[in-house]
Design a protein that fits this description.
This protein has two domains: 74 residues, Monooxygenase, CATH 1.20.1280; 160 residues, Jelly Rolls. Strands 1, 2, 3, 5, 6, 8, 13 and 15 form an eight-stranded antiparallel beta sheet that branches. It has a five-stranded antiparallel beta sheet with strand order 4-7-14-11-12, with no helix packed on it. It is α+β, with helices and mostly antiparallel strands and 294 residues long. The protein contains seven helices and 15 strands. The radius of gyration is 24 Å and the shape is elongated. InterPro entries: F-box-like_dom_sf (IPR036047), F-box_dom (IPR001810), PP2-like (IPR025886).
Length: 294
């Protein structure tokens, strides 16, 4: 759709350079019928709609229409407004609702965040390590939560050393669009520190992850299951480890997703692992490695 935008911006420029000597002004963008403007905007992605809104008054007014933005929202967006924001939708315009849902919205005591992609309106869901059941978490000899600016939740679970590693989580949610979703664990070997304003990673406690692979599992209320195994790698960098995929068909019914990460070979200890979060997103929309806040 970018070609459409460039054509209209070009037309707007040509319009502004017309000579003042013409007795009869030629038609401009402002002379387009409202129905034509609405049809044009309906074919564009939300960021493109906002660009065209700056062309003239007619496009700006059309870009505020509730019917236009309702067509961009998932059909069950009201669930998200009530479940996450806890706000009635009656006093907000559809454009305001779309903008709010595209921001990271925290819920369940700040342990989860959900947001929509600005272009596609597909849903992304992030679950903090604090929302996971972690074996040994209550014993500070093994695990503890440490603050960091490298997590959207500002904290990660850090493993010093343990024999049995098991992290389990569950969420029940209405996914707003049908299709395939992927689940990732965001992990890092090592503990991030700041020294003299620079990022460094303490790898002193990292051990045991190259002996046996970690197993990731997920299951859904629709009897879907997935399992994957891999060795943890790339010390000092955040990595998204793919646990598996699942299909959402009925978006008006909650889907329950259970997931886990285990390494329970007790022949050796494991340590030096940072656990940030679990990410659920549309499939094929994320790189496996990321050192940024995602």
């Amino acid at each position: 759709m970018g070609g459409i935008i460039s054509v209209f911006f070009s037309a707007s420029t040509d319009e502004s350079t017309k000579g003042s000597s013409d007795s009869v002004p030629e038609p401009g963008l402002g002379d387009l019928p409202d129905s034509c403007i609405t049809m044009i905007l309906a074919e564009l992605d939300p960021p493109e709609i906002c660009k065209l809104a700056g062309l003239n008054r007619a496009f700006r007014i059309a870009s505020l229409a509730d019917n236009l933005w309702k067509s961009k929202l998932p059909s069950n967006y009201e669930f998200l407004m009530e479940r996450v924001l806890g706000e009635p939708v009656g006093y907000l315009t559809k454009k305001e609702i779309y903008a709010r849902l595209c921001r990271p919205n925290a819920f369940d005591g700040g342990t989860k965040e959900v947001w929509l992609d600005k272009v596609s309106a597909k849903m992304y869901l992030s679950i903090s390590s604090k929302a996971l059941k972690i074996t040994g978490m209550d014993d500070r000899r093994y695990w503890n939560h440490i603050p960091t600016g490298e997590s959207r939740f500002n904290t990660v679970a850090y493993l010093q050393q343990i024999w049995w590693v098991e992290l389990v989580g569950e969420i029940e949610f209405e996914f707003l669009l049908p299709g395939k979703y992927s689940l990732f664990f965001r992990l890092q070997l090592g503990k991030t520190l700041k020294r003299f304003g620079r990022r460094v990673c303490d790898l002193g406690r990292v051990h045991g992850w190259d002996i046996k692979p970690v197993r990731f599992q997920l299951s859904t209320s629709g009897c879907q299951e997935a399992t994957s195994e891999c060795y943890l790698h790339d010390p000092g960098n955040w990595v998204h480890y793919h646990a598996g995929d699942f299909i959402v068909e009925n978006t008006h019914m909650p889907s329950r997703v259970k997931f886990s990460m285990v390494q329970i070979d007790c022949t050796h200890t494991k340590g030096g692992l940072s656990v940030d979060s679990v990410l659920i997103c549309p499939s094929k929309r994320i790189e496996s490695r990321s050192s940024q806040i995602t």
